[in-house]
Amino acid sequence: MNHYIVLWPMVVITAMMLLMMMTIRLLSNAAIEYDIKNDLRKSMNQSLKYISFEKDGLKIEDEFWYIQDCTFVILRTDGTVEAGNYPEKLKEKIKELEVPERLTVSVTSGTEKYYVRDVKIGREHTKWKYYVRGIIKKSDADSHYATIAMVSYLNIICVLAAILVWGLFYSKRVSRALDDMCKTAESIGTSFDITKRMTENYKFQEVEVLAQANNRMLDRIEQNFKQQKQFTSDVAHELRTPIAVVLAQCQYARERMLSVEEHEEILDVIFRQSKKIDSLIIQLLHLSRLDQDRIEIQDETLDFVEIVQSVCEEWQEKLQNGIRIRLKLEEAYSMGDIGLIVIVIQNLLTNAVKFSRPYGVIDVKTGEASGESYVQVTDYGIGIAKEHQEQIFQRFYKCDKSRNAEGFGLGLALSKKIAEKHGGRITVISELGKGSTFTLYLPVQKKIPSENF
Ligand code: ADP
Q1: Cα 106 to Cα 137: distance, rounded to the nearest angstrom
Q2: pLDDT tens digits for range 57-109
Q3: I want to staple 82 with a disulfide (CB 3.0 to 4.6 A). Which of 32, 74, 169, 246 is the partner?
Q4: CA of 351 to the centre of ligand 1 (A)
Q5: 352: CA distance to ligand 1 center in Å?
Q6: Is 407's C-beta closer than 6 angstroms to any atom of ligand 1?
Q7: Type and span of the H or E element at 395
Q8: Rg (CA), the chain
Q9: Euclidean distance between CA atoms 233 and 284, whole angstroms
Q10: What distance in Å separates the CA atoms of residue 137 and residue 125, rounded to the nearest whole number?
């Protein structure tokens, strides 16, 4: 595995360090130049003390020639040398050099840089007029800025070296950890063994967090796989019984000479079982479309009072065993797909009727509370035990299979999905033996005053 993970940060850090070195060089050069010029000025002021004018000419004391770091040459006004010598390397260059009064100029000869300054000496009323020319070689000048710059360079180089060594070491260890994770991922991919997990005890917290996140993702994928397998087996299981009945009836009819009445009976059975298969397929299709967002949810005004009244009117006619529906309807509006919301209310009513006792009452209420419109269906039937209450919203879940042979255990799962797609929810309050209350909540939507148009 390569070390790209730290390569770019290291390149950037190196570039920044080089930039810092260049800045230090620029600043230190300016400071050194200022320092040298200052030294030259001071040395020249000092040197003038050792020059005097006698009757017979210029008198130069020996100390004049030994001032630290400086070379002095005394020039006549025509530029010829009266006393002293130029440094060897500067001799040629100096001829072309113009040194204005009170200014220090620099001249480069080969790899060396020199600073040159002139001071006019002499008496105004005499014919002797001279210049003292002071020269300092940059490399001989002892500027503390040069020392500071050197120490800074060394520091930067040490830090850079440390970062590079640490970066390579770190990248090797990180890439080893990532390599390990890659191998696990690849082995999951090739063996399809979704139960495999990545090691989680790495030295680096970031890699550890990544491994944990991957493992959580694998947990969810595994759970999803299991759910899908379960789903397929549940569908097969639910289809097997009605299809077996249809096949058996067909076989029976083919093998025997039956009367018209017997044929009618068989057709009735086949019709009922086919309707059951059809209803399972319709529910599965609804769920799958909702899962994949392939269903277009209409944005209509939902008048809960109106919807409940029309659903219950149909129901009143179908009710058996003396069961009756009591309505307590208060104004409640929301937005959504009337067709889908009718499916939810019908599912809740079907269950309430299915699990009510003979001559039982089913209360249906509508209203608004805390920003939500609701439809509430209460029965006083068998109720649901606490441990089942969360699971009844799972697909194909039935609390007691023997008591619900007709249902597939899909009604509440579908209803919950529809509620969620509308930004709502379904709640259940139930007590075993006493009955259950299912409530569909959707966001309140004020009625659009259509009568104004
Ligand atoms: P189905 O479509 O088969 O009725 P549901 O998803 O609607 O399935 O319900 C799942 C299970 O929840 C039912 O099999 C039943 O055990 C339980 N259940 C639902 N509603 C009620 C209720 N009102 N009273 C008692 N049990 C209920």
Answers
A1: 10
A2: 778 898 888 887 889 999 888 888 888 988 888 888 887 778 887 788 988 88
A3: 74
A4: 6
A5: 8
A6: yes
A7: none
A8: 50
A9: 14
A10: 35
